[in-house]
Amino acid sequence: MRGCFAPTRTAAQGVPQWGLLYTGGRSVGIGSPREGPPSTPDDERELHARLLAGDETAPSDLARAYLGPLTTWLSRAFPREDSHLIESVVIDLISALAKAPARYDPERGSLSGYLRMAARGDMQNALRSEQRRTRRQLPLEDVELSQAAGKLLVGSPRDPADVVADRDTIDPATVGRLRAGFDDVEWEVVQLMGEGERRTSVFARVLGLEALPPAEQERAVKRVKDRLKKRLQRHWPQVRGDD
Amino acid sequence: MTDHDLLWRAARRVADDPFFLASALLAFAAAEGLDDDGLALHLGCGTDQLPALLLCRRPRGEAQMFRAGVHRIADRFGLDPAHLGRIIRTADALAAFSGAAMDGPGGMLAAARDRPAPEQPRAAPPAVESPDSTPGTRRPGVGDE
């Protein structure tokens, strides 16, 4: 089903709602602050096409749709980092994509996935810059130099999810040892946890639990996540060689 | 920070980027001495709609293309397109005049240095941005009256 972006208005106030008005009768909001990003691949393609076409309202829709969710996601992926820095990274990323939408290729994946990946990369770059600035100020015993990657690992992550969220900054051999402790499905769940995913339905799909009633799905997903968190906690010191 | 606050922060952050409408509207507001409420009132929209409006792309191109862009924005936000177009063009003129007048030898800054400061502030129309009239500056304006 194809849709087109069009303003819709509340009858009482005549306030534009920045929605996706579907000719088929389904109306999918893309922009109000409490609504999430475009919910289907078609919505995302539509928004991207409008950016490419130079639609003046598309950058606003992009910002309204993704600023909040992406900031939330990045805050979860980097829970110890400065919220101001996180917001700046997200704002700059969104405005950069609004100005150069061709940098995203819809054939290579979803827009939300692209934004998350880009946000993670931009955040890591920002942190590396920060690390370079503060490197000489750190006590030597707190700094572990990863010779393979030439990157710094500082201290131990407090939350096992951080391990996965920060996996791109950890040397590949360490990630490989960590990965070896899980099967494919478990690793996918671990990655989702690290990315801050919270929707039960997403975990249920990965775990093949979609047939279960929602309440049961929720319990089963929670069980799996708790178990994996404990395993991560046990596994991480061994992987790091702390034991 | 709420999503609405985030939008405001984004709008302020792109205020100097000519790609975004914020560059025109916030410059206009600064020149006119309008705060956020005053700008929204002047535009004919709610203050809560302002950040989303500011994050639109600034209409560009020659007359027909510019008009089409203004209409798309105005339709979306329920604004008067002619009024919105005038504000953007005013901001363009302010920027051009400001750039030409303030820079270089013989510009207004140079001229101003050759003159004593006026005893009374002039109540002239907003021709030139004052040094402290950076986009986003909140000053009392018509919206407060």
Report strand % of chain A: 5-15%
Share in helix of chain A: 55-70%
Distance between the termini of chain A: 56 Å
Residue stretches of chain B low in confidence (pLDDT < 50, at least 5 long) are 101-145
Element-level helix/strand string of chain B: HHHHHHH
Rounded radius of gyration of chain B (Å): 16 Å
Mass-distribution shape of chain A: globular
Protein model, in words:
By secondary structure, chain A is mainly α. Chain A is built from nine helices and five strands, in the order E-E-E-H-H-H-H-E-E-H-H-H-H-H. In chain A, the strands form two sheets. Chain A has a three-stranded antiparallel β-sheet with strand order 1-2-3, covered by helices on one side. A two-stranded antiparallel ribbon of chain A has the order 4-5. In chain A, helix 1 (41-53) packs across helix 2 (58-77), helix 3 (83-99) packs across helix 4 (111-134) and helix 6 crosses helix 9. Chain A is globular, with a radius of gyration of 21 Å. Mean pLDDT of chain A is 73; it is low at 1-36 and 141-158. Chain B has 145 residues and is mainly alpha-helical. Chain B has a domain at 11-94. Chain B has seven helices and no strands. Chain B has helices at 3-13, 21-32, 36-43, 50-54, 63-77, 81-102, 108-113. In chain B, helix 2 (21-32) packs across helix 6. Chain B is globular, with a radius of gyration of 16 Å. Chain B starts with a helix and ends in a 32-residue tail after the last helix. The chains are: A mainly alpha (243), B mainly alpha (145). Chains A and B meet through helix 2 and helix 3 of A and helix 1 and helix 5 of B.
